[in-house]
Write a structure and sequence with these properties.
This protein is an alpha+beta fold. It folds into three domains: 97 residues, no CATH class; 61 residues, no CATH class; 104 residues, Jelly Rolls, CATH 2.60.120. 22% of the residues lie in helices and 29% in strands. It has five helices and 17 strands. Strand 15 and strand 16 form a beta hairpin. Helix 2 packs across helix 3 and helix 3 packs antiparallel against helix 4. It starts with a helix and ends in an 8-residue tail after the last helix.
């Protein structure tokens, strides 16, 4: 059960000797000033102690690369449009197509045509991006008449533009779940994400290991390889939510949370009971020192101890 601000506030009152009078609880009204200061100081302390926190959260990403009917990896390349209509995979098209994904950076027309009885017919109204200067993603579903019919992507225009990450998907997706074709897939981390603690990959062949194969941008955007096949588990330290009331729960581990009592006690003691200031300050430093100790070493690290100099 999570520790609440009220739990710590009660302990603080005991430390500064404002908890009872001859065994009788002191009315809350007589501690309102201490309470208001505690809420502010406790929020500050939780954020300061966060780096020692051992409470983590995790997210899981299931990845299985879908089949791109345009090919394996060549369609990641940036291609210039220089005035001549371009066909993908070629003018003859390819069957088993039910979706698309592409990025373009200028005015153009993107059509998707199905060969029905020898006639190339638009499957959807051609896309006509205008007034864009950076590579912009377009993706969607293609409701073909028959998956055995060839389908082709047709790119045309009157001025220069570039395009990349072209895909004709074999699988029929829900409209809001059509995948983006990109060498690295972006995953937006939760709002309370601050720092990765560990990234573990589980492969279908029973392999399980810490992952070196990811990228982070802007502290929030996690990228993994499009062709990764398996489960990615990301363990991270959450950013503590602000404490605004005594009913709020702490987002740091229970043992570390006790340090807040001493941290706030050292601050409030100057106003309420100066005799406890030195005691609280010493206990606060001891709690931080204990919390800063590393976790037990992993099996691999322990095993590597025996690979030092002098061992064969």
């Amino acid at each position: 059960m999570a520790v609440t601000a009220q739990d710590l506030f009660n302990k603080l009152l005991a430390v500064i000797d404002n908890f009872t009078e001859d065994g009788v609880a002191i009315p809350d009204a007589e501690n309102v000033d201490v309470q208001k200061k505690f809420i502010i100081f406790a929020d500050m302390a939780q954020k300061e102690l966060w780096k020692y926190n051992k409470v983590t959260k995790q997210v899981e990403i299931t990845s299985k690369p879908p089949e791109n009917r345009l090919g394996f990896s060549s369609n990641f390349e940036i291609i210039d449009f220089e005035g001549t209509t371009q066909y993908y995979p070629d003018e003859n098209g390819v069957n088993n197509v039910q979706g698309y994904s592409i990025k373009v950076d200028g005015d153009c027309t993107i059509a998707f045509e199905e060969n029905i009885g020898g006639t190339w017919t638009d499957i959807i109204t051609p896309l006509t991006p205008t007034s864009i200067n950076t590579l912009t993603l377009y993706k969607g579903v293609l409701a073909v008449t028959d998956t055995d019919n060839p389908v082709r992507m047709v790119l045309s225009g009157t001025t220069h533009f570039r395009h990349k990450d072209r895909a004709l998907w074999k699988v029929l997706y829900q409209a809001d779940k059509v995948p983006e074709y990109a060498a690295w897939v972006k995953y937006d981390m939760p709002a309370d994400f601050n720092a990765i603690d560990e990234v573990v990959e589980e492969y279908p062949t029973r392999q399980y290991k810490e992952s070196p194969n990811f990228k982070m941008e802007n502290y929030k955007n996690y990228y993994y390889s499009f062709y990764f096949d398996g489960l990615i588990r990301i363990i991270y330290k959450p950013v503590p939510i602000a404490i605004t009331a005594l009913t709020d729960a702490l987002q740091i581990d229970d043992v570390l949370a006790q340090a807040i009592v001493y941290d706030v006690g050292a601050k409030i003691g100057f106003y309420e009971n100066k005799d406890v200031v030195n005691y609280c300050e010493q206990r606060r430093l001891e709690a931080k020192m204990e919390a800063s100790k590393d976790q037990p070493a992993a099996e691999e690290a322990i095993g590597n101890v025996y690979l030092g100099v002098g061992w064969n």
